Amino acid sequence: LSDKILALIPAAGSGTRYSKIKNKLFEKIKKIPVIIRSLITVSSVSLINEIIICAAPEIISHIENLIFEYKIKKVKKIVSGGKTRQESVFNGLLYIKGIGGCDFVVVHDGARPLVTTEILQKAIITAKDKGSCVIGMPVKDTIKKINPKTGMIIETPERNLLWNIQTPQVFRFKELLDAHELLQKETFTDDSALLENLGHSIFTGMGSYKNIKITSEEDLKIAEIFLD
Ligand code: CTP
Ligand code: MG
Questions:
Q1: What pTM was computed for the model?
Q2: Is 166 a residue whose pLDDT tops 90?
C-alpha cells in the first residue's frame, strides 16, 4: 500500500522584512505570484496526495481566488495560521490529525517559490527510506557566533560542517505532531529543530542555491534572474 503524503504550506507570515504594506506572497515573479509558484511545483509532485495551506484569515479568500484562477490542484484546505511559523505548522498538523492523519508530511514554505519537483521528490524518497529529510546547502560564507551585547566574536564553527537549511522538510506525520504537542511552549525556527530537541536523528539532502526564500525586497529580483 502506498504512503499517504500531505504537503503543509506555511503562508501565514506578515513578511515584515519585505514590506509593511505589500504581502510578499502575492508579489509576482515573471507574472506569477510567489505563493502560486510554490503551489504549482508542490502540486506537480505525484507522490504528494493533498495540500494544506496555513494562512492568515484575512488572506484566505484571496488565496482561494488565486487557486481557482491558476487551476491549482490538490488543495484540500486552507487553515488559519498562528502568531509564529511554529504555531501555523501546528495548526496545520492538528487539522491533518482531525482528518485521520497521514504517513509523511512535506513542510514547504509558501515564500520559497523556486523549489523544483526534483528537490521535493528527493526529499520525499529520502524520508521514505530514512524516516526524515531536511533540504539544505553547504554555507558559502564563514559563519561566526557573536556576542550580541559586546559585538565580539565568540567562536568560528568549522565551515565544512555548516549548512543553510531550506524547505522542503519531510517527516513522519506522527513524529512531527508529537514533537509539536510536546514542545508547544518552546520556540524553534524550523520543524527539524523540534525533532532534534527530542533526540531524533534527522537526515539531510542537498537542495539548490537557487531555492531561495523571498525575505527582503532584493530577493524578488534575484528570483527573477534565476528563472532566466
Ligand atoms: N509563516 C507562517 N506563520 C507565521 C509566520 C511565518 O505560516 N506566523 C510562514 C511565512 O508565510 C513563510 C514561512 O513561514 O512562508 C517562512 O517565514 P518567513 O520567511 O520568516 O516569512 P514571514 O514571517 O512572513 O516574514 P518576516 O519574518 O520577515 O516577518
Ligand atoms: Mg518570519
A1: 0.97
A2: yes
